[in-house]
């Protein structure tokens, strides 16, 4: 049951990304270009992010008091709370890549599923990077 719900949730997020235009790198780059150097600034991504944060905040508050989840055996929450150099470097690398390419993992996967060759190249590169990190990185 948990796998079905995860797939349905992923599909719902994918549809939301498609409808909001977040699978179009130009839309993301338009948001990140706050100076308008490449054209007019596009604030629509702020509304997409704001909507996602609002939904998460409500659902997080609802699950916070529960001892166990509805559709799984246990909650899968992060156990680490420290901020270290690999985390900062990874976040910086993610941000730079997002700004240059206009895609991050979720929208990249949705765009790749639609057959976009740049998105397929992005996802392939992302998978290679994940594999390299898994082989060379420390265990969590």
Describe the structure.
- The chain is 67% helix and 0% strand.
- The chain has 140 residues and is an all-alpha fold.
- α1 (2-20) packs across α5, α2 crosses α4 (85-101) and α5 packs across α6.
- The longest helix has 21 residues, at 44-64.
- The chain starts with a helix and ends with a helix.
- The model has no long low-confidence stretch (mean pLDDT 86).
Q: So what's the overall shape?
A: globular
Radius of gyration, whole Å: 17 Å
For the terminal residues, how far apart are their CA atoms? 27 Å
* Whole-number mean pLDDT: 86
Task: Set down the secondary structure blueprint.
Blueprint: H1 2-20, H2 25-32, H3 44-64, H4 85-101, H5 105-113, H6 117-136
Helix pairs in contact: 1-5, 2-4, 5-6
Which tags fit this structure?
single chain; about 140 residues; mainly alpha; 6 helices; about 0% strand; globular
Short description:
The chain is an all-alpha fold and 140 residues long. 67% of the residues lie in helices and 0% in strands.
């Amino acid at each position: 049951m948990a796998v079905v719900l995860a797939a349905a949730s992923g599909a719902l997020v994918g549809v939301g990304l498609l409808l909001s235009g977040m699978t179009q790198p130009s839309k993301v780059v338009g948001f990140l270009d706050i100076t308008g150097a490449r054209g007019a600034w596009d604030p629509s991504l702020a509304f997409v992010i704001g909507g996602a944060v609002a939904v998460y905040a409500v659902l997080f508050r609802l699950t916070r008091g529960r001892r166990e989840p509805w559709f799984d055996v246990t909650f899968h929450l992060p156990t680490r709370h420290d901020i270290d150099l690999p985390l900062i470097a990874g976040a910086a690398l993610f941000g730079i890549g997002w700004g240059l390419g206009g895609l991050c993992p979720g929208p990249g996967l949705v765009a790749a599923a639609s057959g976009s060759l740049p998105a397929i190249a992005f996802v392939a590169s992302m998978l290679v990077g994940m594999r390299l990190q898994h082989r060379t990185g420390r265990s969590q």
